[in-house]
TrEMBL record:
Organism: Collinsella acetigenes
Protein name: Uncharacterized protein
Length: 82
């Protein structure tokens, strides 16, 4: 799966924003967390894509100070389908 320039607003240490749903038959067997490239950020924040076994996809902060505001996220992720 490729995610390119998805704009999402996140805030708080574990803040999340729903960005889509993986269709049945293509959902991961185990929860997936993948780091993303975040546009317009000069420091290394721990954030990325979170995909659940139910197929919901979130852009999320993964603890720490995290991002606060609206950003553009890009990443590539792959997983074995359920």
């Amino acid at each position: 799966m490729n995610m390119y320039n998805i704009t999402a607003t996140v805030s708080g240490s574990w803040g999340t924003t729903l960005v889509g749903t993986v269709p049945e038959g293509f959902r991961p067997k185990a929860q997936l967390r993948q780091r993303c490239l975040v546009a317009n950020v000069d420091n290394d924040m721990s954030s990325g894509l979170w995909v659940t076994t139910g197929g919901t996809m979130y852009v999320a902060n993964f603890g720490g100070t995290g991002l606060h505001g609206s950003y553009s996220f890009s990443c590539t992720a792959c997983w074995p389908a359920a």
